[in-house]
Write a structure and sequence with these properties.
By secondary structure, the protein is mainly α. Helices cover 62% and strands 6% of the residues. The protein folds into two domains: 2-366, no CATH class; 379-512, no CATH class. It has 23 helices and five strands. Strands 2-1-3-5-4 form a five-stranded mixed sheet, with helices on one face. The protein is globular and about 80 Å long.
Amino acid sequence: MHTARNSQTRHRLLILLALIIALGHQAVFMHWTCDDAFISYRYAENLSRGNGLVFNTGEKVEGFSNFSWVILLSVFSTLDISPLAISKVLSLLFSFFIIGLVFVTARASGAGPVWAVLCALLLSSATSLAYFSMSGLETVLYTFLLLLAVYIHIKMRGAQSQGRLFLLYSVCFLAAITRPEGVLFLLITAAYHMGQGWFQKKWALFRTHLTYSFLFLAFYGGFILVRFLYYGNVLPNTFYAKPLGTFVETGYSAFFVNFSSGMLSGSFLLIPLVLFSVNRRFFFGNLYPLFFCLAQVAFMSYTGDWMAFGRFFFPVFPLVLILCMTFLSAFGAGSSWQKKRLTAATAFVFWLVFAGLNVWQTSRAVAHKDDYPFLVMNSAELIGLGKWLSDTFPQDSTIALRRQGAVPYYSRMRSLDFLGLTDKTIARRIYQQQDPKVESNSIAGYVVGQGPDLIILFSSQSAVRGWPIETSPAGGKLAHLEYLIHDLAIKEGYTPVKKISLGEIEDAHLLAKPKTDTHRP
């Protein structure tokens, strides 16, 4: 008993160590906020102020894809708590919950204490957890919900009480309204448990899950209906603005880009997981979390977007860790005392190597914060630009630009989106047009034709495509669409107002509308 108590104490100390590591790692990214997060902040603040769930007042466009996160932020916004601050606090708390939950879920799955602790330590060392906890995005909340669903499922193996069933479907429903692909996990939960009841001829179990499935899918159907009545679309506007290939380079599959972007943060563990699944007993014993991983991989393969540190892999990273460590634990079960010590030493070395790789990854991101894609994920310079616009130009000005995050949020101006995330017309043109050249010309004409007071173009020395313009620095480039907008705007009488440096390799170029008194001398 004394030995068991000492063992528990060691495990608790190691979990505490994991929490301390996570806190220290997240502190590195404390002032990094993903530019996309400010889109959600603007929607949340508009809702809390009675303007509706909109980006621009009076324009009903669903330019976000994280409904529950926006609603949660808006609740705090009504209390005059900054969405920026509370998003980081909430994600920090959820990251701590995930670290504790990954340990207890691994233990409930059958992993030995050494392997369960390793899950917590690996997770706490990952750059993906550190960054996305501070990014302002919904990623950590979404990850927590998926892990919680699997934990509830495992605890239901002994007894499927009505309370646990309701909780399981409620968590899956929350995941479904937190991310669009979250509905996959609600459907998997319904199909898995109904299938289990069917094949085992447990008709009472089948009917119970059928009832819960119908109930919560009806709730989700109601959510879709309300969305349609409010926005006029079944899917978020981002679906149309980001078709496959939008931000994924031609010649590479979306899966490869998302897999490689999360490589150092653990996506490589998908490879041994596939090999482990060949084991029949392991495969059928862990079918539910394996389906979760498969669903997220399928989404990774068809998304038109990606982000450094594996944004779209991270939601199932804790599950992949648990599955891998549970398999290794079962493989080493019954070993001699010497082998167990060797196993523990091997696990410790693996953690040190993983942690080292992630320290290097984090250090590289900090050192290259002004380079792509980190210049978008660290929005400090864009925040400064937004505040400068607010101090320099009237609040009723309209700005047109492709970054619909910190700049519109801090300028408080109506914003026209080149990428179509918050603009229905542009999003439909992107979705429907197959010829990129025709699409770019069409969008450029539309943007300039709207007559915005200011057009903001971003030139970067790190851009791999585009054409240089006269106002760009040596080697600076504009993306093709921005080049066309610049050329057309100049022809329409727009004049260069200012060039603002955004770090070492990027500049923002401001063009002002002709015959306008918007600019204050």
